[in-house]
Amino acid sequence: MLISQFFVGQEIFITGGSGFIGKGLIEKILRSCPNVAAVYVLLRPKKGKHIEQRLSDILQSKLFERVRQEQPQALKKVHAIAGDCSELGLGINEKDLKLLQNVNIIYHSAASVRFDDPLRDAILMNTRGTYELIKIAETLKQLKVFMHVSTTYCYPNRRIVEEKFYPSYADWRTTIKLAETYDTETLNVFNLKYGDFQPNTYTFTKSLAEQIIKEYKDRLPLVIFRPSIVVSSIEDPVPGWVDNFNGPIGMLVACGIGIFRTSCGEPNIISDFVPVDIVVRAMLIATCRKAAEESNKDQKKMEIINCAAAKICPIRTGEVIEIGKKVIKKTPFEKTLWVPGGSITRCAVWNFIRFVTLHVLMAILVDIALRFTNTKPFLLKLQRRIYAATLALHYFVTTQWDFRNDNFYELDSFVEKDEIGEFGFLQYRDLDYEEFFRMGIQGARVFLLNEPAECSQGALTRMKIYRVLHFLINLIGGVLIIRFVARYIYGMLYSTI
Fold it and tell me: Domains of the chain: which residue ranges?
């Protein structure tokens, strides 16, 4: 069966529809499977905006430009459902629950992806939220597929992660009870010990959510979909689409602006990231595949999929940085403050010295200069956030995993010949990384920095000026260092005569 044909007349419920994967999923469904019956998106009021306004903002964004041109009628099929995954019953009222009674497919992609979230908040959102949705799913008589979006990093202490369940770090029921009983400060006291010294609350609570799925896998048509680090798109809906600063694109943007010049990590590890459109395509294929398996009980059930791409097209972290600097110097951002530079070092002491001198001191000088121009200082505050982010990511930029993903590869073979261009993904195995990051940086320019797609002549001129100044500063600094060393050696020799 064609994938687009399978989705005809289906009602879909999506949590996390305002997130990176969620928005990409909604866009792809509306554009490539426009004959769905309805798409319900769980949203909560935010920043004084009602859910209908939030949904309108999403659908009117640049991401949905192709949908507005190619399938404008499909936009009317998207409906907002008021709720919150951190609340009991997901905060959905009785009226909206009745609207969901004919839902055929659930995509649960809502999660707090902040690594520094308090344990209590992460439990209520990532673990209990999954359980609350499971309870709702049990009432849906027409349900064909429930896809839980997890992460390949659920079990970070395992260097080889296969497409299977692993033993739990804790009991999920007890953990939810603890979060419902004790306050944030109390739980933070024994966070590390209770979480078996996980690198952050995100991986811990997502692993607990998988244990819930494991318990209900024989009662509901469940699939665990584990993407690795999700980055900008290769093709859909446009090359380079991205909506956040997470992962390598955020690092390249900070580097390109000139405010990120050092990081402590292992430059030779293989970076495992997967483009968002590959993630979305694989999710839709896996949905169709799971529904086919459910209709034929004799077939082997595909319950866990590791959506990782390092084996398809590997690249090292150090290579990402070097390619990024090369691309950005050719097409600088309008907001560039200095020449892109910096590198990853294995030495924590050297990284700290470079951070203090190249990040903190420079931020202080720039903020002082901004005060003289009556501009609000921002760089030192931004550097604090960068430092916190690098600390949270340190474990992941110094460790390499082997994600076994035969189930993921097998998905591509499920796509019929006529739909390979629309839903296939292995045709991208020979990815040109320089072109990919060039488009990713262009996407960051358009979707994150709100700049024109092509850099202006002014940006190119400023980059030339910055490079000259950078050379002169390095030259003067080098001369001063040589002079200091020479005088020191001369003094030592003179004192021995």
Answer: 3-233+272-313+401-448, 457-497
Residues 6+ apart with CB under 8 A from 105: 10, 11, 12, 13, 143, 144, 145, 146, 147, 287
AA letter at 343 = S
The pLDDT, as a whole number, for residue 122 is 92
Residues 20, 23: Cα–Cα separation, whole Å: 6
Alpha carbon separation from 461 to 259, 332, 334, 458 (Å, rounded)? 19, 10, 11, 5
pLDDT of residue 256: 83
Give helix 317-330 / helix 433-443 axis angle, nearest 10°: 60
C-beta neighbour count of 486 within 10 angstroms:
10
Residue whose entry in the numeric block shows the structure tokens 């077939």: 299
Which residues touch 411 (CB under 8 Å, ≥6 apart)?
282, 285, 286, 289, 305, 425
Q: What would the two tokens of residue 261 be? A: 């010049």
- Chain centroid to Cα 451, Å, comes to 22
Give the phi and the psi of residue 229 in degrees, each rounded to 5: -75, 120
Residue 131 confidence (pLDDT): 97
Question: Any bridge partners for residue 12, and if so which?
Answer: 39, 105
- Contact yes or no for 36/12 (Cβ under 8 A): yes
Q: Which amino acid is at 77?
A: K
Tell me if 231 sits within 8 A of 307, measured CB to CB.
no
The fraction of the chain above a pLDDT of 70, given in percent, is: 97
Label residues 213-240 b or e (16+ Cβ within 10 Å = b): bbebbeebbbbbbbbbbbbbbbbbbbbb
Superfamily name with CATH number, domain 3-233+272-313+401-448: NAD(P)-binding Rossmann-like Domain (3.40.50.720)
Name the nearest CA neighbour of 265 among 338, 347, 357, 186.
347
